[in-house]
Amino acid sequence: MKLFSLVTHIATFFFLLGSSSLVSGAGADELAPVNAPAIYASFADGPPDEPEGTPVRGYGWKIPPPKDPDWKGVGRDTAYFLTYQALVVGVLYLAPESVSRWDKEDKDELKWRENVSNPHRDEDDFYINYILHPYWGATYYIRGRERGLDRGQSFLFSAALSTLYEFGLEAFFEQPSYQDLWVTPVVGSLLGEFVFSPIRDRIRAKPGDLDWTDKTILFLTDPLGVVGAQTDRALGVQTTLRLQIFQPSLGARSSAPFGSTSYSLGHAAFRPTAPAWGVQLQVRW
């Protein structure tokens, strides 16, 4: 079990790295609207000073964090974090022992209650406890800062995610670690505030478009944010719900009748003589 943390960290990183490039934008044909004001209800994370209902397509590479805390986004990030960890642990659970370092006895005897009741000082290698864990703590801290949290709130967010991991999924297979519980948020928050944040600020202050090295650095310092933005798109979080007056056109653009001409699914079928209120739902993923 000594290599559990190393295997999990590596697997999580490559899972996030692969997921960050899976989603691309796709549009949908719009209904023909009548010139009338629309009412928008957006489920997207919009850039500052843009009207509600304007979605952001993917990660805001050059968009600064909001001035006020985005608690809804914090909750969504936490849910995604737990989901990613469940997927990684599930993959490792199904992987051969040579990869996961979990033997059959470990898998058959999941001792979560016993493990969470007995935290211990682990014997993992130095680079696992004092390099990998602070790195992840720093990324948790940056995620909080990107959601508009202040230093103290971001530290607590980093501590919360670290605790959720230690006493959550990892505890099914090993006892929580005293070192991890304090090193991850404490050293990680210092690394995030005084190393990661200045680097990110300098990159975002560059004029013009960012190149691939800039985006790579931004990804490495906020992998949960980049993948979370793609997950938002995949799950329709960037969907815009628009209520407005329009003349709907139902069916395909074919002139072939179906039944009588009054119930045709042709291009001009089902168009009312007067505008009508309706709901248009646009989903992009």
What is the CA-CA span between the terminal residues? 39 Å
Rg measurement, Å = 24 Å
- Name the average pLDDT: 74
Portion in strands: 5-15%
How many strand segments? Answer: 3
Q: Reading side by side through the largest sheet, how are the strands ordered?
A: 1-2-3
Helix content: 40-55%
Tell me the number of helical segments per DSSP (H or I, 4 or more residues long). 10
Overall outline = globular
The main pleated sheet reads as: 3 strands, antiparallel
Task: Please specify the SSE layout and strand pairing.
Elements: H1 4-19, E1 39-42, H2 71-94, H3 97-100, H4 104-108, H5 112-116, H6 126-146, H7 151-167, H8 178-204, H9 212-221, H10 223-234, E2 240-246, E3 276-282
Antiparallel strand pairs: 1-2, 2-3
Summarize this, please?
With 285 residues, the protein is mainly alpha-helical. 49% of the residues lie in helices and 6% in strands.
Describe this structure in words.
The protein is mainly alpha-helical and 285 residues long. It has a domain at 4-24 and 59-234. It has helices at 4-19, 71-94, 97-100, 104-108, 112-116, 126-146, 151-167, 178-204, 212-221, 223-234, and strands at 39-42, 240-246, 276-282. A three-stranded antiparallel sheet has the order 1-2-3, with no helix packed on it. Helix 2 crosses helix 10, helix 6 crosses helix 7 (151-167) and helix 7 (151-167) crosses helix 8. The radius of gyration is 24 Å and the shape is globular. Residues 20-55, 239-246, 248-272 and 276-285 have low confidence and may be disordered.
